[in-house]
Design goal:
alpha+beta, OB fold (Dihydrolipoamide Acetyltransferase, E2P), eight-stranded mixed β-sheet, single chain
Length: about 775
């Protein structure tokens, strides 16, 4: 069973390397033809290839079904009417409500088009509270799914396909109608929303109040960025989402309680054995808690494991823990094979696999610490490769933090919160008391975690560059966890040392590497020399809980093993250039900040014309602004020129025609550059012909967002660069753009999106 499960998984994984989805006809052929061969016993040598093909074919079919509806290109950006249902609990902020919408019909130009898909919508200043299961008609403007694509960054397009979300947009005007509100539409999620609303009303805001809803219902809408940072730094983020650990604690507690009480009543034991009664109660609790959590992937896995164990016990059959793990893996993949595109899938199943491997089949532990800390030790070691692969970081205090947090949450907080949810349905007064007490207990734990997270050494940042190194890291961990009586354990240490000592490639002396990051409608560029890192702008801050500095720039810097930023340049104060600066400054030491708006950044100084410096044989100089040109908004942007012995880059921020004319009149001979990042994203308020002629770039890079409201880059600007024969690239089609300014290799852009194109990628 174990090898069958891994083979089925491997077949699904194979498809994830395809840049285009094979025809659905191949899916049917490859699925049904091998399936016929499983009706009779076959050789194991044939069985495993058949299962591999079935996994591959099943994923083809599922991916086609999931992506069967695509928003027609001619409807993007147009006001259309849609009908459907609120499909999940909305997220409500001060002026905006975001929600998942189950689409049924589209009305465009008096034509009603049936459509089945999920949409991610936002509604500014919603006029009415949205309740799960209500049927609405909205006037909306939609666009297809398009996410940023950067090294180390989150693949929003893959996540959207796995979730079935096929477009996003916003409610336009107030032409919205509530068509129907019936309890039988999404009844379980309606109950979850009802409990969530009650919890939100009775618990006063605090650092820990959002975690009550997270632990009760799996809803983490109100969790702040700072709270997530503390949890990541202490390796306890897994505790604040309903997962197998929580369900395991609850089921074990209920099983032991019911089993013990049942044995004290002989009449009941004659009707049903105590262990069966305890198992049935555990299954009930697992299903109930998974329902409260909305059947997220980790809860699916835990719930299925509890059910399988109970059924095996009921049928009096023998089964190994690895067989249970394998059955659950196959079940989850059959339900949704695209789950493998999520981090949750790999963290959840690998965590359980390492626990089974590191604990089962061993001699009984001796010593208090080894007896009770064994699982945490095994789990911490086993998940190091996955944390480095997904997040480029690993907590160094996780064992200490989890030694306190796991029993605190598992044995005290979770039972109280589960009890509170049940009581709240019948008595608001007693339910409130239970939740308030839980919040006080969480606050005590939170102080401890906050203290640990502030150590300078609490987090180790490292990157695993490719799949081969990832496999080496996993094999090394498996070898290190070999039972002590077997040979070969310390060979794992050798492999781990290789992974730890890995360092990304760096420019040679006199070379510079430029990466224009894809931050949507904004700008952020990173310039590497042999021993120095310079950041030019940091991308936008899109909300209180999301900015491109934390979600794009920092992950990219971690892939470079960046320990410090030598210079951060914020060209001007607009959000699309400066919004991500705070997150970067709080997470990586920044030695110097230059900007045209130093009042916005403590310790910053002006970027002024003719300021220059040299790092590792690469010359940096500010061409603009002068003191007289400050205070002009866009036209006060810092203009930086980077020069190597063979090539040069010009980064002009958001300067417009006035500043361009000044540069042409005063510094015409210094403007020439091989690479130009388009002034003001290619706005028609820039691109003076004389400026373009003076720069005469070989490559022009446009940092723009998909279907941005400004329609950048403007067609007039594109036409002017075409006349020069300049090669043009934009971040929408290219993702992150990487150029090596080396002495012995021609200048050729490396485009992240085309280089990492998959069948789910935007086309």
């Amino acid at each position: 069973m174990f090898y069958n499960a891994l083979t089925f998984l491997s077949g699904i994984m194979l498809l994830q390397n395809f840049s285009n989805l094979p025809s659905i006809k191949w899916g049917y052929i490859l699925f049904f033809v091998p399936l016929l061969g499983l009706y009779k016993p076959i050789s194991p040598y044939i069985k495993l290839p058949v299962i591999f093909i079935l996994g591959f074919a099943w994923c083809i079919l599922y991916a086609h079904w999931q992506s069967s509806w695509v928003l027609p290109a001619n409807l993007e950006g147009k006001t259309i009417k849609i009908r459907g249902f609120i499909a999940d609990i909305p997220t409500v902020s001060e002026h905006r409500t975001t929600f998942l919408f189950s689409l049924d019909k589209i009305e465009s130009e008096n034509n009603i088009i049936p459509a089945k898909a999920f949409l991610h919508l936002s509604w500014q200043d919603a006029k009415q509270k949205l309740i799960v299961g209500d049927q609405w008609e909205f006037s909306v403007r939609l666009k297809r799914i398009h996410g940023t694509r950067n090294p180390g960054g989150f693949d929003y397009e893959a996540w959207s396909l796995q979730e079935g979300i096929r477009a996003n947009g916003y409610v336009y005007h107030d032409e919205s109608k509530l068509l129907n509100s019936e309890w039988y539409h999404y009844p379980l999620t309606r109950i979850r929303q009802r409990i969530y609303d009650k919890i939100s009303k009775i618990i006063p805001p605090s650092n820990t109040s959002p975690w009550i809803a997270a632990l009760a219902l799996g809803i983490r809408n109100d969790v702040t960025t700072n709270s997530w940072t503390i949890l990541r730094n202490t390796g306890t983020n897994h505790l604040m989402a309903i997962a197998g650990l929580h369900i395991g604690f609850m089921c074990s507690f209920i099983y032991a309680l019911v089993n013990r009480l049942w044995r004290r009543m002989p009449a009941l034991c004659l009707r049903l054995p105590a262990q069966h009664a305890g198992g049935l109660a555990a299954v009930f609790i697992a299903v109930m808690y998974s329902t409260l959590a909305g059947f997220s992937l980790p809860t699916q896995r835990a719930c299925l494991m509890v059910i399988i164990f109970f059924l095996i016990s009921l049928l009096r059959r023998q089964i190994t823990i690895w067989q249970v793990w394998s059955l659950v893996l196959i079940s989850v993949l059959i339900f949704n094979p695209l789950n493998i595109l999520t981090q949750s899938f790999w963290l959840s199943f690998s965590a359980v696999a390492f626990i089974i491997y590191g604990v089962s089949g061993r001699l009984a532990p001796t010593g208090l610490w080894w007896k009770f800390g064994r699982i945490q030790w095994v789990l911490t070691l086993g998940l190091i490769p996955f944390n480095l692969w997904f997040f480029q970081e690993c907590s160094c205090v996780s064992i200490m933090a989890n030694a306190i947090a796991i029993p605190w949450v598992g044995f005290i907080i979770i039972p109280l919160i589960f009890l509170g949810c049940f009581v709240l349905l019948f008595s608001a007064k007693y339910g409130e008391s239970i939740f308030l007490f839980s919040d006080k207990l969480l606050a005590v734990l939170w102080k401890f975690l906050t203290y640990l997270s502030h150590f300078s050494w609490s987090v180790w940042y490292h990157t695993i560059p490719n799949l081969y190194m990832m496999l080496l890291a996993c094999i090394s961990m498996i070898m290190l966890l070999i039972p002590s009586g077997l040979a070969g354990r310390w060979f794992g240490l050798l492999g781990l040392i290789i992974v730890i000592l890995y360092q990304p490639l760096k420019p040679a002396f006199g070379e510079a590497w430029l990466t224009l990051l894809d931050v949507g409608q904004g700008l952020s560029a990173v310039i590497q020399t042999q021993n120095h890192i310079t950041i030019f702008d940091t991308g936008p801050r899109l909300s209180d809980d999301f900015d491109m500095g934390e979600n794009v720039v920092l992950p990219f810097l971690h892939t470079l093993e960046t320990k410090k930023i030598d210079m951060m340049i914020i060209s001007h104060g607009d959000n699309d250039h400066s919004g991500g600066a705070k997150a970067i400054i709080e997470n990586i030491p920044v030695l110097d900040i230059k900007t045209s708006k130093p009042a916005l950044f403590p310790g910053a100084s002006y970027c002024l014309q003719h300021q220059s410096w040299e790092w590792d044989g690469v010359h940096f100089t500010f061409l603009y602004p002068t003191i007289e040109k400050l205070g002009l908004n866009n036209d006060s942007s810092c203009v930086l020129k980077v020069t190597t012995s063979h090539y040069s880059i010009l980064l002009p921020g958001d300067i417009e025609k006035m500043a361009e004319k000044y540069l042409v009149s005063e510094l015409k001979n210094e403007l020439s550059a091989d690479i130009l990042i388009a002034p003001h994203h290619g706005s028609k308020t820039s691109a003076v012909p004389a400026f373009i002629q003076s720069v005469h770039p070989r490559y022009i890079l446009f940092p723009v967002g998909y279907r941005n409201r400004y329609h950048f880059p403007h067609s007039i600007v594109l036409t002017q660069y075409k006349k020069l024969g300049t090669e043009m690239y934009d971040s929408v089609k290219s993702g992150a753009i990487f150029l090596k300014l080396t002495n012995d290799v021609d200048l050729v852009p490396i485009l992240y999106r085309p280089e990492h194109r998959f069948y789910w990628s935007f086309k």
